[in-house]
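Session log. Operator J.P. requested a structure for one protein chain; no other inputs attached. Running the standard single-chain path with token output.
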Amino acid sequence: MPRQRRSFGQFLLAIDAFVDTVLWSIGSALRRAFESYDAFLRSFRARGIWRALAELGSDACTYGAIGLVIVLAFAQPAFEATRYADWRTTDDFAVTFLDRFGKEIGKRGIVLNDTVPLEEIPDVLIKATLATEDRRFFSHFGIDVIGTFRAMVENARAGGVVQGGSSLTQQLAKNLFLSNERTLGRKIKEAYLALWLEANLTKQEILKLYLDRAYMGGGVFGVTAAAEFYFNKNVRELTLAESAMLAGLYKAPTKYAPHVNLPAARARANEVLTNMVQAGLLTEGQVIGARRNPAIAVDRSQDQLPEYFLDWALDEVKKLARRNPALARDRIVTVRTTLDPALQRQADLAVEATLRDNAKARDVGSAALA
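Structure written below.
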């Protein structure tokens, strides 16, 4: 028995010696490798200006890596929208309402129309968009580094924000996923989402989505719906002057909406024409006609719509969508109502006449007809 214990103890000592030897050998090998690597690097030790550049590059890589980690942490929440949401659609309905005879009586929700393919959108409208919003759209990777740097320089000179540096893809990312808040966090999310869009879509798909989703003022989204709203035209029929006016809306749709401020809209359209010439997309001779004959927008100041009825009808559409998943998925819908405009006008006249004749005597200020 003592002999067996002695043999077992010697076996454990042998294992311990083996482990110690292996660890010592590995440590020695690592030390020699590190010393060789250090000697190799010393042979390339820079001096003078090259040393300063090397130190600067080393610090840039270090702090750049730290900054990348921080930026990724900021951007992470934005990618949740791409993972769980149908990001190609909007969050609201675009509803066109018809009366009982099938005639359009108004629209509610997001007025949007994306049924026209990119190939059928006028070339002058696409050129006006690119010349004004992103001249290097087909050459950058989602972020226009040159344009961003130029905008930073111009804003620094002016002491404020006078020029935007966002690419067309970044603007689309904001329209699809983000709010309009001006914060560093939102800009980081916008940049990463732009890279994500470029990785998952073609340039033509990005351009089409931008043309369909950009807010154009007046509750209208997309150039197709804007052409109908502002010019009562199919987008395929737009002229150069009208295309320039629509392209001018991307920057500030409320400020330059032609039905709100036609002189400002025309002045902005003239800037768009200048951009097209400067970008080399058209010549001055080709735009002179549009400068001399600016677009004329439809006057919507006298539109008489059954506003309260349309508000009620939109609520009913949303209730139906909750019970009908197919309707919820198709958010661009046309709805036929029971409204008879002629009878409605007669009812309004009857109420007005009754109030005019009897309101004072009966001491009332309103009336209703059923």
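Operator note: The chain has 16 helices and five strands.
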